[in-house]
Amino acid sequence: MIPMELKQVTALVTGSTGRVGFSIAKALAAAGCNCICHYNTNKQRAAQLTEQIMNMQCKACAVAADLTEPEQIEQLFTRAAELGTPQVLINSAAVFSTQSLAEVTFQQAQRVFSLNLTAPILTARFFAEKLQRQFGRTSYAVGKIINIADIGAIRPWAQHCLYCSSKAGLIAATKALAKELAPSVCVNAVAPGIVTWPENFDQTQRNRQLSFIPLKRTADPAEVADAVIFLLKNDYITGQVLNVDGGRCI
Question: Which CATH number fits domain 10-244: 3.10.180.10, 3.10.450.50, 3.40.50.300, 3.40.50.720?
Fold first, then answer.
């Protein structure tokens, strides 16, 4: 068995301009990874991220792609080829959606599921194909996939049917892919609790949510990133979901 090292490994982080994705990309760089920083529209923040990573003596590039368009997912890997074959894939890109069941439309459902569920499955497909082309079939892990889920997939909320369903699907996909891609790829998920408050939450609503959390606070993005690094450093964990939720799901 050859343990997988993170130093000088290429990592692809989707949704790297979000708070969690940004923190994960920096944690990967701190661990020695070269980073492909995916973004959709926030080019300026992606440029800031790549500059910070390069200042950490790691290579980095920013690549734009709309992950709801299948051909752009494939192009994402092609355009990032300068950094080599990714051995780490972090599926962090997602859209948060709030609406009552009566307000749900086909178009909304298609948008949420396309980004939160279909896109991570397709990025995993291209990731695995490129790994096999580079390393062939191996009896040990040469790749790692971490899907960023949500405790809403485990403890769903009213008014969030689309979002919670898409994240629950992502957890199921994590377990299915862990079986299919083993032993060459370990596939796990991290399920954060509250990291940022919805914009429409007033203090009363925030206090109510905090009352459900034993640790009585929200998560710091760095704490989610730490969980990702933990899973990446272990070659004997696959198909698991690590809750980073302050005890919310107890």
Answer: 3.40.50.720
